[in-house]
Amino acid sequence: MFGVLFYGFLYILIHTMIAIGWWRWRVEGRENLPPRQNGGMIVVMNHVHWLDIPAVGALLPFSYRLSWLGKIEIFAHPIIGWFFRAMNVIPIKRGQRDLAALDASVEALKDGAVLLIFPEGTRNRSGVLREGRGGAIRLAISSGAPIVPMAMTGTMHGLRGTFRREPLMLKIGKPYIIKPLPNGKIPFDTMERLKTDMMIRIAQLLPEERRGFYKQLAASDTKVL
Fold first, then answer.
1. How are strands ordered across the β-sheet holding 147-153?
2. Positions in the chain whose pLDDT score sits under 70
C-alpha cells in the first residue's frame, strides 16, 4: 500500500508541475501502449540519468505503474531495502547472470507487471546509444510478454535541467512479441539478431545524433527478424 501511495504522490506532484507549465515534459506515442488488461509488458529504453525512471513513470498512464531492476547492494540496509521492494524494484546481481532475478522478473510479468529494462546495462551520461544486452530478450521469451521500445531525451542535466525548463520527451514505439524458441534455448546468432532488432527500434525513436552504435542500421530501417 505504501508503494502505491508514494508512487501516486510523485505522479500527482510531477503532473502538477507539468500542468502549470513549469516542467516541459511531453510524451508521444501513448496509443502504442498495449492495453493494460492484456497483462504484463517489458519497456526497453535508453538510460542517461536517474531521472529517466521517475520521468517515464510519470509520463505513462498511472495504471502502467512501473517495476524495474535495481542492483542488490541498495537492498542491504533494511529500511532502504523495504522502501525499494515497496516500489516494485527487483534486486539483481550486476555483472553476472542472476537466475533468481530472472525468475522473479518472469513471475512479475506473468502477474501483469510493467517492467522497465535498460538494455545498455547502466547509465550512459553521453546520451549516445551504446551496444545493448540481451536480458530483455530472455525475459520476453520466458514470459511471453510484449516488448515496448521507448526513448527518452532531455534528462541529461537531471532535475537542474528540468527546473531550468529544458524540454524532456518520451517517445513510445510499437510493441512486438518474440515467438517462443524450440526447447527455450537461444542460439548465439539468434540472440544477436533479436538484440540488434530491439536496439534498432529504440534508436529509431532517438534523434539521429544520439543513435550511436546503431546509427547506420537505424537510418537504413534494417530489419533483422
1. 25-28, 168-172, 147-153, 41-45, 114-117, 66-71, 89-92
2. 94-98, 184, 220-225
Joined grid coordinates for residue 176: 512486438
CA distances from 39 to 74, 111, 124, 139, 143 (A): 28, 7, 30, 14, 11
Alpha carbons within 13 A on the beta-carbon side of 166: 11
Tell me the sheet residues that pair with 120.
Answer: none
| Residue 107 to residue 110: CA distance in whole angstroms | 5
135-143 vs 188-203: helix crossing angle, rounded to 10: 100
CA distance 106 to 92: 13
Domain boundaries, the chain: 2-219
**Cβ count near 125 (within 10 Å):** 10
User: Residue 45 to residues 4, 75, 159, 203: CA-CA distances in angstroms?
Assistant: 23, 24, 19, 9
Please give the CATH architecture assigned to the domain spanning 2-219: 3-Layer(aba) Sandwich (3.40)
Q: pLDDT by residue (tens digit) across 83-101?
A: 888 888 888 776 556 677 7
